[in-house]
Amino acid sequence: MSGRVRYSKSGAIASVLFDRADARNAMTWQMYDQLVAACRAISEDDEVCVAVFRGAGGQFAAGTDIAQFAEFTGADSGIAYERRMDATLEAIERVGKPVIAVVEGSCVGGGLIIAAACDLRIATISARFGVPIARTLGNCLSPGNIARLLAHFGPARTKRMLLFGELLSASEAVSCGFVARTAELQDIDRVAEELCGRVAGQAPLTMFAAKEMIRRIANAQIPDCDDLIRLVYGSADFREGVTSFLGKRSPVWRGK
């Protein structure tokens, strides 16, 4: 599988690019590892004051490449995957500098969770947000990721995304506070630069302490839901979801 997460730096601004435009920036295992490495590099570089995450080709990210789920052998594979995702998202939240997600196009599945783990989000007016796994793959999210969605979207919108597969518009994402600001496509780079400039002038230790306190408070409320993760990833429905997606057909759910 092709694709990379590319890390670069220009002065005080670090950039992380999800570069797999031919697959809507769907993330491979290698790309997740590269993302974690980029987060580490940002934290360890004293010259960096702020980081920008964005996708190539006019899309943010479409989550995990579903072809990789064909390797799963049962419930334990699902537990291991969700642990890996939790570790990746924690790496984003532990970055010691503010992280801004610049969202164009689709921001769905794992891509939405990556954006939720960032500190601030700006988006083009045509961007869409959601987790349509109930109608596509038949998997589930970890409790940590559900908590991230609840914190940003509240129970009603989170249920619309997870139960009904709805995609939210950029304007609705602004209305609930998930997106800080929208802009036309031709203006999004300018808006990102303005925000980076403002953030770069703030007190670094104050921002770090605020980020870390918020992260600790949020994590203190996460329950153990391994039984539910095992139920879903060990099911025939999950295997059907993967097979039907890769075969480009509609899934037939049986609730087993």
Task: List descriptors.
256 residues, alpha/beta, single chain, 9 strands
Structure description:
By secondary structure, this protein is an alpha/beta fold. Helix content is 48%, strand content 16%. The protein has ten helices and nine strands. It has helices at 29-44, 75-93, 110-117, 133-136, 143-164, 170-175, 188-200, 204-219, 226-233, 236-246, and strands at 4-10, 13-19, 50-55, 99-103, 106-108, 120-124, 128-130, 168-169, 181-183. The strands form two sheets. Strands 1-2-3-4-6-9 form a six-stranded mixed β-sheet, with helices on both faces. A three-stranded mixed β-sheet has the order 5-7-8. A hairpin with a 2-residue loop joins β1 and β2 (13-19). α1 (29-44) runs parallel beside α2 and α2 packs across α9 (226-233). The longest helix has 22 residues, at 143-164. The chain is globular and about 55 Å long. The model has no long low-confidence stretch (mean pLDDT 96).
